[in-house]
Design goal:
By secondary structure, the chain is α/β, with parallel strands linked by helices. The chain has two domains: 165 residues, Spore Coat Polysaccharide Biosynthesis Protein SpsA, Chain A, CATH 3.90.550; 84 residues. Helices cover 40% and strands 24% of the residues. The chain is built from nine helices and eleven strands. Strands 1, 2, 3, 4, 5, 6, 7, 8 and 11 form a nine-stranded mixed β-sheet that branches. It has a two-stranded antiparallel ribbon with strand order 9-10. Strand 2, helix 2 and strand 3 form a beta-alpha-beta unit.
């Protein structure tokens, strides 16, 4: 068995971090929780478990994850969020992992939940992410949100048995807050990259995304929760482009010459 470090970044995750640490206890001899200034009970909960608590400033998802990975004992990293836990099959796969293929990253299936409902269809149904990798070859990009791993040429992608259980949001209120936060971060990233908010993106794309995930991808089969997820995706799309347009308006206003009125 090759050593795998489990790395979790978090801030104000008192509602879920205890459950996560309980589920991964004993999976690895090196579990790192990298806290970014929690003001709730997160830190005190983490200290109740046999894990390494590290603390540092929030620098966006990509950069913060790289800093946390650099603190790991092992080169093989399993990157988790505070609301993600491996199922029993994935735990068995990790415990028998030999790490022989250094030039391979592992794509892991996600089972996403809204509350206690497993979302089997729609945007969240057919979901997987690369979360197991060797840090000697692979790192995160520095995107502030929707970060991705930079996969060099010659590194292949493989599957590993098992799934990550993602307790995405406990309720609709938390869902809305997270979508608003991610929309703000994404709009800021687009603004920095000079991406524009077109009429189509603001007025048409949200409706298109709802139709895509609710009807074409079968979100309606998840009942009320499937409807909520499709509507939240539409809301997120509308909000990020509307906020982007607003950022350009603010910038234009700043660039206008100030009129001096003599008295």
């Amino acid at each position: 068995m090759t050593g795998i470090s489990i790395v979790i970044i978090c801030k104000n995750e008192a509602a879920v971090i205890g459950h996560t640490l309980e589920k991964i206890k004993g999976v690895s001899d090196d579990i790192i929780v990298y806290d970014n200034g929690s003001t709730d009970e997160t830190v005190s909960i983490v200290r109740q478990y046999p894990v390494r608590l590290e603390q540092g400033p929030w620098e966006g998802f990509g950069r913060t994850k790289n800093k946390a990975c650099a603190l790991a004992k092992h080169d093989w990293i399993l990157s988790l969020d505070a609301d993600e836990t491996p199922d029993e099959t994935l735990v068995a796969s990790l415990q028998s992992f030999d790490g022989a293929e250094e030039k391979t990253v592992y794509d892991i299936r996600f089972k996403n939940f809204l509350g206690n409902v497993h979302l089997r269809f729609g945007e969240w149904g057919d979901d997987s992410h690369i979360r197991l990798f060797n840090r000697k070859l692979v790192l995160w990009n520095e995107a502030p949100v929707h970060e991705e791993l930079i996969i060099p040429a010659g590194v292949s992608i493989s599957k590993i048995k098992g799934a990550i259980l993602h307790r995405t949001m406990k309720d609709i209120a938390e869902y809305a807050i997270k979508m608003a936060h991610y929309a703000e971060l994404r709009a800021g990233q687009y603004f920095k990259n000079n991406k524009k908010a077109s009429w189509y993106k603001i007025r048409v794309a949200p409706t298109f995304n709802f139709i895509k995930y609710y009807f074409f991808k079968g979100g309606f089969l998840d009942g009320h929760e499937g409807f909520v997820c499709a509507k939240m995706t539409a809301f997120y799309t509308f909000l990020k482009y509307s906020r982007l347009k607003e950022m350009y308006k603010v910038e234009e206003k700043k660039s206008l010459p100030h009129r001096h009125i003599d008295t």
